[in-house]
Design brief:
Low-confidence stretches: none
Structural class: alpha+beta
Strand content: 5-15%
Bound molecules: zinc ion
């Protein structure tokens, strides 16, 4: 092959797509403010900001500790078997 091999940098365009953000109008479950929150579609947000979400989670943890229930970790079985529990209920 006499052809000189020239390298040429080819720019492959990366996949560039717009994630369809969704705007939710909600009332913050923490501060009670009406807010417009733009985020990825899926579970609708409950809080107007990450600060509120963090604070609410902290408060939740605090409340849980205050009740004195030593729930070190959530029982993953219970959450995972939500449908199993339902199934059991239908069976009984
Ligand atoms: Zn809020």
């Amino acid at each position: 092959m006499s052809k000189q091999t020239k390298t040429r940098r080819v720019h492959v365009p990366t996949y560039d797509y717009d994630m369809p953000l969704k705007t939710y109008q909600l009332q913050c479950a923490w501060c009670g403010q009406d807010a417009l929150v733009t985020c990825y579609p899926g579970r609708p947000p409950r809080f107007c900001s990450t600060d509120c979400a963090t604070e609410a989670r902290k408060a939740h943890d605090r409340a849980r500790k205050a009740t004195g229930q030593p729930q070190g970790h959530r029982q993953p079985r219970q959450t995972a078997t939500g449908d199993v529990a339902a199934r059991k209920n239908t069976r009984v």
